[in-house]
Every structure is written in C-alpha cells, then in structure tokens.
Amino acid sequence: MKIIVDAMGGDNAPLEIIKGTMLAVDEFGIDEAVLLGDENVINSCVKENNITLNNTKVINCTQVIDNCDDAKVVLRGKPDSSMAVGFKLLNDGEGDAFVSAGNTGAITVGATLITKRIKGVKRPAIASVMPSTSKPFVLMDCGANAECKSEYLYQFGLLGSIYMQNIFGVANPTVALANNGTEETKGTPTVKEAYNLMKSAPYNFIGNIEGRQIPFGDADVVVADGFTGNLILKTYEGVAKALMQGIKNAFYKNTLSKLSYLGVRSGINDMKTQFDYKEYGGAVMLGVRKPVIKAHGSADARCFKNAIKQAVMFLQTDLIDKIEKELQSEE
Amino acid sequence: MKIIVDAMGGDNAPLEIIKGTMLAVDEFGIDEAVLLGDENVINSCVKENNITLNNTKVINCTQVIDNCDDAKVVLRGKPDSSMAVGFKLLNDGEGDAFVSAGNTGAITVGATLITKRIKGVKRPAIASVMPSTSKPFVLMDCGANAECKSEYLYQFGLLGSIYMQNIFGVANPTVALANNGTEETKGTPTVKEAYNLMKSAPYNFIGNIEGRQIPFGDADVVVADGFTGNLILKTYEGVAKALMQGIKNAFYKNTLSKLSYLGVRSGINDMKTQFDYKEYGGAVMLGVRKPVIKAHGSADARCFKNAIKQAVMFLQTDLIDKIEKELQSEE
C-alpha cells in the first residue's frame, strides 16, 4: 500500500500534513508514503520538529497551488506543483491513492480529468462525511457539479449507499434527497424527477429530507446537487463554528465561568467529539478510478491521518471494484 | 391599526397565539386585533387561562388547515378556515396586516394569489430574519419560489435591501448572493447571470457568500432561490438546535455539571439570546400588497408578539409604499 501525499496543501502545511502522514504510516501499516512538495521546506520542517520519516520518500516539486488559483488552468499551468505531480503519479501507478488538503477545485478537476471516472459513472461527486447527533452520514455532491441532471442525483444515491455500506459498515444505508419539504411534490423539476427515479432504486430510498433533520442523522446518505450540497455543508460547518465560539465565550466570561468549565468539561468534550468533523478527515471524490481524498483545508495532524484512513479503507474494502461491479449490474 | 391574527395556526395554537397577540396589543398600541378561529376553542382557552381580551374581537371560523393539507387546494377547499378568512379580510380592507403561524405553503399561496404582488414585483419571496454572531440579517427566498430566474434573484436583493433599511434601520445594507464559492465564476448559470446583474445594481452588492460565512453576519441580505434558501434556513436552524441540545446534555450529565451551570448561566444565556430566532418572530412575505407575516410554527407568546411587531413596523414605516416607489424608479 503506497499513499501519495500533497505536503503543500492546506492551512497547516507542511507540518501538520507530515505529522498526520507519519501517524497514518504507524497506525495503518502503510508500505510507503510519498510526500510531494518543496524538498527544502519539507526537510527543514522535519528537522526543526524532530520528526522521523518512516517508510517515506520525498519528491521535490517546485510549484505551489494556492486557493486563489483558477482550478481549470492550474494543473496544466503548474505541472510541477505537488497537486499536478500527485495526480500524475497516481495515474502512472506510482501510488495507490492520493490525499491532499489543498484547493478543492483543483482536486475536483484533477480527479475528473486525470484520474477519470469509473466506467458507468455519470458524474464523480465530492462526498463529505459529516457528524450528526446520532451517527456520521455522507452528503454528496458537495461541489463538483453545480448543476445536476436527475439521473446524476439518482446515481449519487447509489454511490453513497455503496460507500456507507463498505467504509462505515452500515447495512442497507438509508438514502434521502435534500429538499425544501418532505412531500413528494416539493422541489425543482429536476429534484422531482430524481425523486421519481429514486423511488424504484435498488437502494434504500427513504424520501425527501429537510435541512432541519440533516443534523440529527435521519439519513445515512443525503443527496443534493453540488451547488446546494456545498451550501448545506458550509452552512452546517459555519453554524457549528459560530455556536462553539459562543460556548467558548460563555466560559471565558469571568473567573466563576472559567471555574465552572471544570465541572462540565467532560460533557462539553463529549459534544465536541460527537460534532467533530476532524474525526472523518474530509471528503472523498466518489466515482473516480482511484482513491482521491480531499482532507479539510484546516486539517491538523489527526484530521489528516483520518483522511489517509479513508484512502486505506477504500483500498482495503476494494471499494472502487465494488462500485464498478454494481454499476455493471445496473445496466 | 388593525391586525388580523390566525388563532389556529402553529404548534402552540391557540393559547400562545392569543397570549402573544395580547402582549402586542399592549405594547404596540394596536387599535384592534381580530382573532380568527373556532370561537368555542378560543373562548374556553381565554377563560381557562384567565386572559383578558383587550381591543380584540373574535371571528368564528369553522374549518382548520393543518400542515398536511396541500397548499394549492387548501384555501379554495377550506373557505371558512382561519387562514382563508384572514386573507379575505385583509383583501377587503377589514384589517391592515395578517399574521399566522400556520402552514407556510398555504400562506405563500394566499399571499401570492389573494393578496397579490406589488406592481413591478416579479415574484414575492419569503424573507426570514435570522440571527448571526454579529447582527440579524435577512435570507430570501426561503421557499416561495423553488426555481428562480436571475432577474428574480436580482430583485430579491432590492426588496431585502429596502426591508433591512426600513425595518432594521441599516444604512446601505450589504447584499450577497449565496453561492458555492466566493469567485465570480462560481455557481449555476442562473446564479452567474444574477451575479452579473447585481454587479450594477443600485443596492450595495458585495458579491458571493459561502455557507460558512452566513452565520457570522457578513451580509445584511443573503439572496438565494427558494429551494436553496429553504435548505440554508432549515440546516441553520437544525444545526443550532442539535448543538443547543448537546450543551443541555453536557450540563445535565451529573451533579457537578448541573452545579457548574450556575457559574456559566449568564454567558450561555447571552449566547442563547444572540442566536434566538424568536427575537424576530418569523418570516415576512416580501413583495405583496399588504403585510403578511409568517410566524414560526413553534412560536410561543413572545415569538408571536415579535411576528406582530414585524407587521406593525411594515405599517409604521410605509414599507410597501416605499417598495412600490423604488420599483417605479427602477423601470
């Protein structure tokens, strides 16, 4: 098992990316990690922080993609960036999976145009694993396809279902369609069409889901087009962040409130753990021929390790083969 | 000033609706409140709870609309429901505004087809006032129009801007377009078109807003189509509810955590107040010829009072006249 890592992507690169990769190497029995990025930067970061690189090689890349770069031109325009080299190595079989916390647009373009789709997949999608009050669920598409035909939405349900079954061991995952009401008659014409297709799907379609039920884990797979899914995902993260800040401010208010924190810390920590997106590492590009994992942009070492865990699970469960077979049987 | 109230709509009808109406009559100098609903139910509720009805008349309605009713047929099919009678009285000039915590679909249909739009308004929208970490903002459309043309989105920006200026006293309100990225090139073709229109709008357009910035109050007006807006609104409410439950559970965990609550209560209450949607009462139907207010379905007395306050502010600021004049000058 050989994992290709973009050491330059994300807010906390390269330190947390390197640390997370080393945690993953130790924990998941990875044969080799390939760190891509500016060799000098990586080596001095390793030295300064007394990190020992186990089963790891560094490949020097001279260019860097930042979040302002236009995704469409970036991979062609910066062929020696850690991102472009990562996709090339993955394609050439020089690694089994690619993990990056970098520019989402560039990862989407790379996965779609370089890694390419699994036969039978209409559109690959960004699938984000998210926390809820009861259990994790997957939301897809989170931004790869701003516009979706009804048959793409239908297929997202299938891909998400296979994913939750294999990676999270959920038997017969429930699939719901994000909509502005629970009634069958709700939504845009495309969403209504998707509802009709999904009614006779081979997966466990449970109907529409409204925004207010999503955080309670009412469905294992929540299906949306990439425009809507992205807004759901980020509103979800934004509200959680705003409220967590509010809680922090409440405890920081005065000496008494600071003391009070000691008495409730364990409960607050339970809640933080439950709503901790870092637990799942990020999003996966579902529907492409190799595992491509988009770690959270703000990933720390633990979060990045969990993103690599997703890649490992893809490989261990033969997820891509399973998707391919399932799609063949659909035809 | 005469306010028509649907006494039968919402989860806590009629008690909290009646109590909220009486609070509003006392506080806002309303000349007359008209309570619509089953006379026997209203009168016995009043009696049992020792409520004194000031400046209030009750009009008996024999039918009830519930949340399962199909919005499109409901007003015609149940002409003697509190909702249908409310819209009729408003249209006949028997009252200056209509406030209901009932079925959103029925209110939308009633406002659009019975109250009708202000001249120049392309599509009326549901505008929800929402809390953020910094200041309230308005999100529209929250569900009246699942599909929107770019010129509707453009006009929502204008309506929302006039609303925030007059009702919340915000000078030169900032208007942002909900999108799956901040770049001008993001979004569906319709959203991109809307962006282009909004760039040369007479209002203060500040560009795209991502979901994660919405809860921090980065814009005074957030524009979306009704499908997306509804999912943003409800995801927002759902995540806040899920986390508030988490906090409650943390404090209820054991004796020590319960005691700790005393020390942090005031800070937690500050946060609750800041994120309290009840403060604003609900949503308004923006773009119709009379004030139609949709109170939260779960409104308690205070929340319903605040929904009536919205109606009062509409009247006191001549908001509808101002919208009409602004649209004339646009042409």
Automatic annotation (TrEMBL), chains A, B:
What InterPro entries does this protein map onto?
FA_synthesis, Phospholipid_synth_PlsX-like
One MF term in the entry's GO annotations = phosphate:acyl-[acyl carrier protein] acyltransferase activity
Localization, per the record, is: Cytoplasm
Q: Which reaction does it catalyse?
A: a fatty acyl-[ACP] + phosphate = an acyl phosphate + holo-[ACP]
Q: What is its EC number?
A: 2.3.1.274
Q: Pfam families per the record? A: FA_synthesis
Check the UniProt entry and state the signal peptide residues, or none: none
HAMAP family named among the record's database cross-references = PlsX
- Which PANTHER family does the protein's record reference? FATTY ACID/PHOSPHOLIPID SYNTHESIS PROTEIN PLSX (PTHR30100), PHOSPHATE ACYLTRANSFERASE (PTHR30100:SF1)
Concerning its family, UniProt says: Belongs to the PlsX family.
Question: What does the subunit comment say?
Answer: Homodimer. Probably interacts with PlsY.
Name this polypeptide is given: Phosphate acyltransferase
What species is given as this protein's source? Eubacterium coprostanoligenes
